[in-house]
Amino acid sequence: MAIYGNGRIANELHHLFANKKPEQVTIYDLLEFDQMHYDGIAALDVAVEKCQIKEHQHIVDIGSGYGGPSRYLAWKYNVNVTAIELQEEHSNQANELTKYVQLGSKVRHLNADISALDTREYNEKFHVAISLLVFLHIPNRDQLLKNVSSILKLSIGKLFIEDWYCKYSFLPEEVKCLSEKMLCPYLPTKDEYIEQLISAGFGDIEFIDMTESWTTICSKRSEDFYLNREIEIQKHGQSVYEDLLSFYQGVDKLFKNGHLGGARIVATKLR
Fold first, then answer.
1. pLDDT at position 6, please?
2. Is the pLDDT of residue 1 over 80?
3. 8-269: CATH homologous superfamily?
4. Contact criterion met (CB below 8 Å) for 97 and 67
5. What is the pLDDT of residues 8-37, one digit of tens each?
6. Which residue among 32, 172, 186, 259 is least crowded, i.e. fewest CB within 10 A of its CB?
7. What is the three-class DSSP state of 60?
8. Computed from CA positions of residues 108, 44, 33, 30, in that sequence, does the dihedral angle turn out positive or negative?
9. Angular region, 25: left φ>0, alpha ψ -120 to 50, beta rest
10. Which of 128, 151, 145 is nearest to 49 (CA)?
11. What's the pLDDT score for residue 4?
12. For residue 70, how far is the Cα from the chain centroid?
């Protein structure tokens, strides 16, 4: 997707290093651009509260992208994080960013496909799994959730998801946009999502509708990116800017149409 591609992070780093040396980079510098989900670090603070995350626990970040959430949790809450990312380029870049802020001892980056991962090595290892706007890209929910369940500790393992869902039936043009621009081949309804979690062994499920909040966030993001176009074009170039603007406007329109839903889901591994 445009939000990840076209050298966006390299452009951000080039802009950052114009003002300070790599060894001077802090977590605050990276927070300016390494949080790709809605609500930024506020959403991560909610995850810590909802899942009762404690110091030194083992957390797995599924679809960790450039590692922003993993680094923040390790830095702010002193936990150990395994960051699983499918795309090798993103995983390698995330590892470099983690080294910049000297969190390599707390955050381990793993280039792997969670749906195909041999989970025996990680059997009931993790206290909490988080995944932020990632499951929407994975059509095989049964295998996905089965694998996630297998690596969480029984009875105490928590799952925190922020994801899209099908609130109302999509129009044909929305299906095309979701598939081609958002790389989102399938979205369950709320009831289907809950049933899938139950089938994978999860219970105590809290499904919090975030649609209204995320609609506002996505609208402001699109508007701000357009209003700051001169700065963004200088940073990224015209082509990358246009790709990002098209992506932001596409998400904005999907939410405003009223058929796309957003959810924050918390569940416990019960079996």
1. 65
2. no
3. Vaccinia Virus protein VP39 (3.40.50.150)
4. yes
5. 888 999 999 998 998 999 999 999 999 999
6. 172
7. strand
8. negative
9. beta
10. 128
11. 76
12. 10
Average of per-residue pLDDT values in the chain: 96
At 210, the amino acid letter reads: M
Q: Residue 56: pLDDT above 80? A: yes
Q: Give 180-207 pLDDT, tens digit per residue.
A: 999 999 999 999 999 999 999 999 999 9
> Is-contact 97 28, C-beta < 8 A?
no
**pLDDT attached to residue 2:** 73
3-state secondary structure 86-143: CCHHHHHHHHHHHHHCCCCCCEEEEECCCCCCCHHHHCCCECEEEEECCHHHCCCHHH
Average pLDDT over residues 226-238: 94
How far, CA to CA in Å, does 95 sit from each of 45, 91, 266? 23, 6, 28
Helix (H, G, I), strand (E, B) or coil at 56: coil
Report domain extents, the chain: 8-269
Spatial distance between the Cα atoms of 186 and 54, rounded to a whole number of angstroms: 34
- For residues 37 and 115, give the distance between their C-alpha atoms in angstroms, rounded to a whole number: 21
Nearest-CA neighbor of 2 among 244, 230, 260? 244
d(CA 16, CA 226): 21
